[in-house]
Amino acid sequence: MPQRPSRTLAEALARRYRALDLTRRNIERLFDNGHISLRAAEQMYEGLFLSAFTAFETFIEELFVGLLVTDAGLYCQAIDVVPRLTVRSHAVAREMVIGAGRNYVDWLPYERTEERAELFFRGGRPFTALRGTAMAAGRSVLQRGAVLRNAIAHKSRYSLTRFERDVIRGTPLTSVERKPAGFLRGIAAAVPAQTRYETYATAILTVARTIAA
User: Fold this and answer.
1) Are 116 and 94 in contact (CB under 8 A)?
2) Is residue 213 part of a domain?
């Protein structure tokens, strides 16, 4: 199998996000026509966000492992992406990154990805591309997104307190929007109207395209 450009992974993620947004628009049509309740619509937004965030984590893992594999993996257009070792098998690369006998590894908070990248790639590139003021907004989105994901998945007192502290951060919101589901469905931008779910998905996709350039 020949190498393929790493940007194809970001393109695949973009297609996944477009499919999720089509579902989101269908949810709103169902709600507007009275076919589903507000609670059902909000719960579906939670599911959409979990799917979007999980897809991004899968993207990071596939990019990381693919860039390690020589000849049959991925390549970046940037010339400064250099693995510190030669690996010719995806299975071997995945075992080295994830660990023998393990099924997954934590990629977020994003600092974990950067630390792991510095072990396997010279300068940690391309995963350290988010460092610096130019990508500060992208890092912030990933940090807040991870907190929001945990608040949805666990709904523990601790995760919801983190959501209040790190995501809402004193923003004046309605009582509905102070919960993860209502927060995601709430309008973040008026012109054009855009939900917070949409703004998060757009920002996360920008991050993916940056590190897979």
Assistant:
1) no
2) no
pLDDT tens per residue, range 61-107: 999 999 999 877 898 887 789 999 888 888 899 999 988 677 788 99
At 114, give phi and psi (nearest 5°): -65, -45
Which among 55, 126, 65 has a CA at the least distance from the CA of 90?
65
The one-letter amino acid code at 186 reads G
The span from the CA of 56 to the CA of 204, in Å, is: 8
| Distance separating alpha carbons of residues 150 and 185, to the nearest angstrom | 17
- Is 212 part of any domain? no
The verdict on residue 160 lying in a domain is yes
Does residue 34 come out as left (phi exceeding 0), alpha (psi in the -120 to 50 range) or beta?
Answer: left
- Structurally, the chain folds into a number of domains equal to 1
Longest dimension (CA), the chain: 58
Query: Of 191, 207, 194, which Cα lies nearest the Cα of 137?
Result: 207
CA gap 37, 41 in Å, rounded = 6
Residue 186, domain member (yes or no): yes
Token readout for 29 is 């049509």
Decide if 55 contacts 207 (C-beta within 8 A): no
Phi then psi for residue 171, to 5 deg, are -65, 130
Enter the pTM of the model.
0.93
Sign, Cα dihedral of 172, 136, 10, 107: negative
Average pLDDT per consecutive 10 residues, the chain (213 residues; last block may be shorter)? 87 98 97 96 96 97 94 82 89 87 85 95 94 84 96 95 94 93 90 91 95 92
Domain membership of residue 88 as a residue range:
4-204
